[in-house]
């Protein structure tokens, strides 16, 4: 079930609501800032090199892992975006074109542009449709 907010997790409540409940609003904001719009793997057993530790520290990272781990496995979380993106739509399309030509992954683009990974996928689709249209119309936009 989806209520128009973040995706729901098996424990009930949105991903962000659960993170806030487990580690507080300040740490949740740090997680959104670091990983918003991207998938974050939350392992059952935390390693020193996990990026979550850099974002919120070992104690908070372990609390997140303890909460979201399922049986003996971790969980992929799609971390919601914050309230603001850094690029206007036209600039975002140009950036995605450039980054695609450079071989950058969708996740890398999302992080660089501070947008949701789905936004990158939509931009790629729009670029693909524009390219088809140009080919069909003799190269005219």
Structure description:
This protein is mainly α and 141 residues long. 55% of the residues lie in helices and 6% in strands. The protein folds into 2 domains: 15-78; 89-136. The protein has helices at residues 15-23, 25-35, 51-56, 58-68, 89-101, 106-113, 117-136, and strands spanning 39-42, 75-78. Strands 1-2 form a two-stranded antiparallel ribbon. Helix 1 (15-23) crosses helix 2 and helix 5 packs across helix 7. The termini are far apart. The model is unreliable at 1-11 (pLDDT under 50).
Uncertain runs are 1-11
The radius of gyration is 18 Å
Order of helices and strands: HHEHHEHHH
Which structural class is indicated by helix and strand composition? mainly alpha
Q: Into which percent range does the helicity of residues fall?
A: 55-70%
Strand order of the largest sheet: 1-2
The N- and C-terminal alpha carbons lie at a distance of 41 Å
For the largest beta-sheet, the strand count, sense and barrel status come to: 2 strands, antiparallel
Number of strands: 2
Percent in strands: 5-15%
Q: Helix tally? A: 7
Multimeric status of the protein: single chain
Shape annotation: elongated
Mean of the pLDDT scores?
82
């Amino acid at each position: 079930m989806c209520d128009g907010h973040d995706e729901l997790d098996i424990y009930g409540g949105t991903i962000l609501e659960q993170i806030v409940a487990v580690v507080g609003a300040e740490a949740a904001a740090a997680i959104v800032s670091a990983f918003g719009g991207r998938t974050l793997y939350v392992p059952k057993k935390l390693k020193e090199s996990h990026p979550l530790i850099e974002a919120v520290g070992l104690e908070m990272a372990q609390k997140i892992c303890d909460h979201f781990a399922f049986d003996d496995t971790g969980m992929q979380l799609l971390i919601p975006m914050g309230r603001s993106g850094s690029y206007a739509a036209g600039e975002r399309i140009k950036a995605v074109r450039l980054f695609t030509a450079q071989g950058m992954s969708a996740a890398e683009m999302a992080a660089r542009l501070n947008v949701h990974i789905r936004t990158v996928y939509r931009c790629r689709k729009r670029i693909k449709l524009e390219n088809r249209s140009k080919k069909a119309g003799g190269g005219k936009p």
